[in-house]
Write a structure and sequence with these properties.
- The chain has about 270 residues and is mainly beta.
- It has one domain (about 1-30, about 45-265): Lipocalin.
- The protein has helices at about 1-30, 80; strands at about 50-65, 70-75, 85-95, 100, 105-115, 125-145, 150-170, 175-195, 200-210, 215-230, 230-245, 250-265.
- Strands 1, 2, 3, 4, 5, 6, 7, 8, 9, 10, 11 and 12 form a twelve-stranded antiparallel beta sheet that branches.
- Strand 7 and strand 8 (about 175-195) form a beta hairpin.
- It is elongated.
- Mean pLDDT is about 80; it is low at about 1-45.
C-alpha cells in the first residue's frame, strides 16, 4: 500500500512537471515573434558551453537499511553524519551544445566509526565503514530558452554503489563482514530556471523513475547569485529517495535531504 501511494504521488509530480515544462514551450512557439530573424537561435543556446559545479550536500539520512534479514531504522541528521565523515567528493558537470545537454552528477562519501571495546580478552576495537557512490549521467534538451526563463527536459541513468563493512580487532581476533550492492535506475524529469535580475536566478527541478529499485526520485530548489562573469554561487535544498529491495536479504529504503551549497564555473 505504501509503495502504491508513493508511485501515485510520483505520477502526479511528473504530470505537474510536464505541464510546467511543456506549457511555456508551447506558448512560446505559438506566440508571435517580432524578431527580425525568427529562425535564429538565442545567443545563450548557440555553440558549445560547459558548466562545472563542485558542491557540498549537508544531508541527513532517514529510513531502513539491512541485510541477511536484519533491518535497522536509521535517523541521522547531517550533524550526526558529519561526526563520522571521513572523505567525500561531490560535483556536477554539464556540457551543452546549442540546446542539447549532457548533465552528469557524481557524489561519493565515506563514513567511518572506530571505537574501543572494554574487553580484557578477544576483540578490543570495532570498526564500521560505509561508502556510498551515486553517479547520474544524462541527456536533455532545452525546450524554452529566453533571457529570463529556461526549461530543460532530462533523461538519465542513476547508478548506485553501496559498501558496508564491520570488523573487530584484538590480540586473539581479527575478522569482519562486508556487503556490497550495485544497481542502476532509469529516471526522467526536468528543471526550470527563472532569472529575477541579471545577477540572481532560481532553479527548481527533479526526476523520478526506477528499475532495479522500486522507486528512485529527487527534487531540489536552488538560488543562484552571479558574483563574476564566470562564477555563480548557489544555495538551496535537495531531497532524494530510493527504495531498493532486490530480495529479503538486502534493504536500502532511505531518504536523504538537506541544504546544498556550491559554486558554478562557466568554463565556456
Amino acid at each position: 500500500m505504501k509503495t502504491s501511494l508513493t508511485f501515485r504521488l510520483l505520477v502526479l509530480l511528473l504530470g505537474v512537471l510536464c505541464i510546467a515544462i511543456l506549457g511555456p514551450a508551447l506558448w512560446a512557439q505559438s506566440a508571435p515573434n517580432t524578431s527580425t530573424k525568427p529562425d535564429s537561435p538565442s545567443p545563450s543556446s548557440d555553440g558549445f558551453h560547459m558548466d562545472v559545479t563542485p558542491y557540498l550536500w549537508l544531508a541527513g539520512m532517514h529510513g531502513t537499511t539491512g541485510f541477511a534479514g536484519h533491518d535497522a531504522s536509521v535517523h541521522a541528521s547531517f550533524g550526526d553524519i558529519a561526526d563520522y565523515l571521513n572523505l567525500g567528493f561531490m560535483a556536477a558537470v554539464e556540457p551543452r551544445y546549442n540546446r542539447v545537454l549532457f548533465p552528469m552528477d557524481f557524489m561519493w562519501v565515506k563514513l567511518t566509526d572506530k571505537r574501543a571495546l572494554d574487553f580484557d580478552e578477544g576483540a578490543t576495537t570495532a570498526k564500521a565503514e560505509f561508502k556510498q557512490t551515486i553517479f547520474t549521467p544524462g541527456i536533455g534538451y532545452r525546450l524554452a530558452d529566453t533571457e529570463k526563463f529556461k526549461v530543460d527536459g532530462i533523461m538519465a541513468a542513476r547508478y548506485w554503489h553501496l559498501n558496508s563493512s564491520l570488523s573487530a580487532q584484538g590480540p586473539n581476533i581479527n575478522n569482519g563482514i562486508s556487503r556490497t550492492a550495485d544497481w542502476t535506475d532509469a529516471v526522467a524529469g526536468g528543471r526550470i530556471t527563472m532569472a529575477f535580475t541579471p545577477r540572481m536566478s532560481v532553479t527548481v527541478g527533479g526526476d523520478a523513475g526506477g528499475g532495479s529499485a522500486r522507486s528512485d526520485y529527487e527534487a531540489y530548489g536552488v538560488l543562484g547569485v552571479r558574483v563574476a562573469r564566470k562564477w555563480l554561487l548557489r544555495a538551496g535544498y535537495r531531497y532524494m529517495s530510493v527504495n531498493y529491495r532486490p530480495s529479503s536479504t538486502f534493504v536500502y529504503d532511505v531518504n536523504q535531504c538537506g541544504i546544498i551549497i556550491g559554486a558554478t564555473w562557466n568554463a565556456k
